[in-house]
Amino acid sequence: MELIERYLQEVGRHLPANKRADILSELRSSLNDSLEAHTDRQPSEEAVLPILREMGAPREVAASYYPEGQYLIGPELFPLFQLIVGIVLAATVSGQLIAAIVSLTVSHRPDFLTLLQILNSIPAALGSVVLVFAIMQWFNVHPDLKKEDFDPRHLPPLYKEKPLHRSEQIFSIAVGTIFLACLVPFGASGGFTAKYGVNLLTDPVLDTYYPWIAVSVVLGLLLSIVLLWRGHWEMSTRIAKIGTDIFALVLLDLLFHGQMAWSNQMGSGGTIVEPFQFTNTPQGLQLVGMACFRLAFLVALIVIAVSTFFRIYRLIKNDLFNHRVPTER
Amino acid sequence: MVKSMQPSPTVENVVQELRRGALILAALSQLEVEKYGYALIRQLEENGLEIDQGTLYPLLRRLEAQGLLDSKWNVEGSRPRRYYVINKTGKTVLKDLVTEWHSLAKCMERLLAEVK
User: Fold this and answer.
1) Which of B57, B61, B62 lies at the smallest CB-CB distance from A30?
2) With CB atoms 3.0 to 4.6 Å apart as the test, which of A95, A112, A139, A161 could cross-link to A253 if both were Cys?
């Protein structure tokens, strides 16, 4: 009966290769027994249909031969998978951040692409771990993990979320507003300038990016207002905070690079001290000013990079794995 | 235990859960003498327990993999058939399961006595 063979062929597509022939032989035998019992005449397609329907859809029949179900990563492997993912993610992100910071501080040539590579490396790292565990699952490898004796006295203490400090949000809103109030007139009056006698000293790099600086400050302000309104951190505000921090990192990196390139063009090296030899001239003062900005950008870049790393770590560890709102100030 | 019309997915799921363990016990109990799958299905049906082929054959495979059943192909007859029979380990397990089943049945009778 062709319909039975077509059915078995479809079941076989979803069966493990090493058991396929044996299982299909048994099913064929059983289907023919059933067909024989249900019809007296020459078996027809109409007689086969209800028997196949009763047997079930080929994929479902095949799935029932997997005693532990069909998983990419099954329940037995999942706790170990979760542990390894945490370690790999933390190692990947911190490795990239350390590389970015080393590049920034040692070679004085910070490479923003290194920071961006963090975003690229996370899916690659995750994919590798998933692949390894999927192979383990496929070959039914279950590491014999020692089961620790459960002692209720060693349970972690009750989780208490520290309240979000409203005073900090109010302070950051005030500072952000003042900064923005200063920033807008600067931009409107032709850039960041300082008078030295009759000379007008400018910071061309800040001029270039000042609208983006304003955007970054506004984003920070909006987030502080939302936090003040909500009164606590949520998954969405945490992600928004990481987003604004990454935006600030991008901007700071562009500013740092811009300042560095401008200083080199003006004949000043990469160090902070070097411009002081020109302090008696307008150009010297401008170089010193630029160098100070550069140093400030570098410090801010490092501080925000580190804090962003910890925010991401807490987001992964507490929100994504433990399904609870982590403590954060 | 007879397969019945299930009024809702919830009831259907619970009935499946209830049947799952009982089917193991039922299959083991009927394999003192070796049988092929379809013959076992008929025997269970004759005793009021309906089980479809898509459920029984994987179950027999699992019981064999657990070391409770032995099986062999028999090519004599109208078509080749795989015969299953309970082995020594299976008999020991069956004995324990039967004791557990009776204990559970008594317990459930008491618990459900007042359910209307």
Assistant:
1) B57
2) A112
Of B52, B54, B80, which has the smallest distance from its Cβ to A25's Cβ? B80
Q: Which residues of B touch A20 (CB under 8 A)?
A: none
Above 0.90 for ipTM, yes or no? Answer: no
Residue B1 distance to chain A (closest CA, Å):
19
Determine, yes or no, domain membership for A214.
Answer: yes
The yes-or-no verdict on residue A199 having pLDDT over 70 is: no
Contact flag A26-B57 (C-beta cutoff 8 Å): yes
User: Tell me, what's the pLDDT at A233?
Assistant: 81
Closest alpha carbon within chain B to A29: B81
Same structural domain for residues A133 and A230?
no
> What is the domain count for chain A?
3
DSSP string computed for chain B = ------SSHHHHHHHHHHHHHHHHHHHHHT-SS-EEHHHHHHHHHHTT----HHHHHHHHHHHHHTTSEEEEEE--SSS-EEEEEE-HHHHHHHHHHHHHHHHHHHHHHHHHTT--
* Residue A269 resides in a domain: yes
Winning range, highest mean pLDDT, from A99-103, A159-163, A247-251, B88-92: B88-92
pTM equals 0.55
Which domains are delineated in chain B?
Answer: 9-112 (1.10.10.10)
| Of A23-37, A77-91, A150-164, the least confident | A150-164
* Gap from B103 CA to chain A (nearest CA, Å): 27
